[in-house]
TrEMBL record:
It comes from the Eukaryota. Residues 81-115 form a coiled coil. It comes from Botryobasidium botryosum (strain FD-172 SS1). Keywords: Chaperone, Coiled coil. One of its GO terms (cellular component) is cytoplasm. GO terms for molecular function: protein folding chaperone; unfolded protein binding. Pfam families: Prefoldin_2 (PF01920). This is Prefoldin subunit 1. InterPro entries: PFD_beta-like, Prefoldin. Belongs to the prefoldin subunit beta family. The lineage of its organism: Eukaryota, Fungi, Dikarya, Basidiomycota, Agaricomycotina.
Length: 126
């Protein structure tokens, strides 16, 4: 069973296009994952630093400030810690979803590459 050259050419183009799109999306997803990992690590370090700050002599929390645009707002320690932990959870979820996407894209890319190999091996004269 041999396909006409024009049909084979169209199939090859489509498979190559799929492989290129998967490769691009894969590199973008990996960059996004690395960025989110950095953000999460910075957040974890900040949470650790905030937790290690002792209370003042009268037993009250020290003043903590949160950046809001170009200004800073005083925020109670429990609220700041809660916000940071929810941001950390959100980043962890994003990283998990990106890892799933990366696995899917890797599979899609590998499938396209194997299809190309199969086509080239089957079309070579023996």
């Amino acid at each position: 069973m041999s396909l006409p050259d024009e049909t084979l050419h169209k199939i090859l183009q489509q498979i190559q296009q799929t492989a290129q799109q998967s490769s691009r999306a894969l590199s973008i997803s990996r960059a996004q994952t690395a960025q989110k990992e950095r953000e999460r690590r910075i957040l974890q370090l900040t949470i650790g630093e905030i937790s290690s700050i002792p209370r003042n002599a009268s037993g009250e929390d020290v003043n903590l400030y949160k950046g809001v645009g170009k200004m800073f707002m005083q925020v109670p320690r429990p609220i700041l810690e809660k916000d940071m932990k929810s941001q950390e959870k959100e980043l962890t979820d994003d990283i998990s979803n990106l890892n799933k996407k990366i696995k899917y894209l890797e599979k899609q890319y590998n499938d396209a590459q194997s299809q190309l190999k199969d086509i080239f091996h089957s079309s070579q004269p023996r």
